[in-house]
Amino acid sequence: MDIADVAKRTGVPASTLRYYEKKGLLKSLAGPGQRRQFAADVADRLALIALGQAAGFSLDEVGAMLVDLQVDRQMLISKADELDARIRRLQAMSKGLRHAAQCPEEDHLECPKFQRLMKLSAAGHGKKQGSSTVVLKRPD
């Protein structure tokens, strides 16, 4: 299947297919200067790449798993634990936003539940940014 067919059938842009090939995630069967041809299982490999990315793995981590098709089970457990923690944070934020939508307080910044939502959000944001605290204040 050539690159245009793969792009059309999978919805993955040709530029992404070329990038994945450059990173070693995909292999084409054509030589230099020829139109790229991919094996029949390319859609399955693309689905595995998408699954890995959706689970939070980097392309390098996905590539390592695809090279020898050996999966580091401890890495999978660690990633699942990270996803569970993220889900808990997102569920708490969802509850907080629903509360804010119906909150009787005139100013959301005065609402204790909304305050907790802001702290939760700041804690998650601070971890990603490498900072331990983020201060949120109401503008005067």
From TrEMBL:
Residues 1-68 form the HTH merR-type domain. The keyword Kinase does not apply. Transmembrane segments: none annotated. It holds the Pfam family MerR_1. GO terms for molecular function: DNA binding; DNA-binding transcription factor activity. SMART domains: HTH_MERR. Keywords: DNA-binding. InterPro entries: DNA-bd_dom_put_sf, MerR-type_HTH_dom, MerR_fam. This is MerR family transcriptional regulator. It comes from Pseudomonas monteilii SB3101.
